[in-house]
């Protein structure tokens, strides 16, 4: 395929030739030869997004999401690589559990990675011998799956992962800083009042100190506070922010109810704005969704009984593109590219992904930034059928390509193509 006259994130117009799995050439006025030519004039072409933080729920909870439905949702949202977290059933804490999850991942339409988890019963020898994307998210407080660990075990895990050359990602909350007085409340805001901003900052500081003592690098998942972001940045560690912490705050909880319960929780509007500033100015390294679907029936409970988590893999890139389109926001299309593709590929050493360059995987997303769509949960591909971004505007892909194959075409009668996703670590860190 020759994609003709596409506008790249930096605003330049280029032709992009795809050959097999890879990008063969990027330039002006490329000769079409025998290529099928696709006219992309007036459209923008982005590298496929890499979502380093999803929960596709298999094994253990297929009624919430499966690798098939989750990967379809990802493709429809322009995500071409996902990284699944370990808090499934069984948890991914040994080699056998990794192998079982990899069998489910074979149903994925897009490429994938699998993270390994840490519990008192984990088996680092067998787990770290597998083709892990990273170790983590390592939970410093309990969340879905009750995998919270203490500081000593965290230090041991960092040592083991560093020796094995495996990155470490951290869910940073300090349960000793939770506000027990909030337990007396039953309003939608009580969860945010309970899992305090101070709990995140304290845990980030402790995790970074442990990493520095070992000359190790860690990545802080779903940072929700400017304090946590700044602590990690000053320590030389990387961070991610979710779309819900970027665009939603505690002022939205009256409308969201328990659909807005997640870990870490939504913060005050003043903190959200400061987080947005750090995303825009480059302090935050990447956006990742923490896609954590639950059914509406499960969410229809009290604030203390509802499960934590929201879907997001399908709406991340469309929301960010809509933000970049708005002249009143500080996000640019180049910054969206870096947050969703270039920096995740660089930080986690996936050199075949993340850029529109010769030799890279042909993971591409074509969008028309002049057209927006109102987001509605029932129209999304995710199996849970709802979204915290109901009514927001998004710019959705016209098509999504993974390694040269169009896996999603919005205009087709059957929008999803046949494709076998693969473990990105099977590329051995080399350009394909």
Care to describe what's here?
The protein folds into 2 domains: 2-45 and 359-419, Urease, subunit C, domain 1, CATH 2.30.40.10; 55-347, Metal-dependent hydrolases (TIM Barrel, Alpha-Beta Barrel), CATH 3.20.20.140. Helix 4 packs across helix 6 (197-213). The protein has 13 helices and 18 strands. It has a 5-stranded parallel sheet with strand order 9-10-11-12-13. Strands 3-2-1-4 form a 4-stranded mixed sheet, with no helix packed on it. A 4-stranded antiparallel sheet has the order 5-14-17-18. It is globular, with a radius of gyration of 21 Å. The protein is 28% helix and 18% strand. With 432 residues, it is an alpha/beta fold.
CATH superfamily of the largest domain: Metal-dependent hydrolases
**CATH classification class of the largest domain:** Alpha Beta
Low-confidence stretches: none
For the record, the CATH architecture of the largest domain stands as: Alpha-Beta Barrel
Strand elements, count = 18
What integer is the average pLDDT? Answer: 96
Q: Could you say what the CATH topology of the largest domain is called?
A: TIM Barrel
Structural class based on helices, strands and sheet pairing: alpha/beta
- How are strands sequenced across the largest beta sheet? 9-10-11-12-13
Helix content: 25-40%
Strand percent estimate: 15-25%
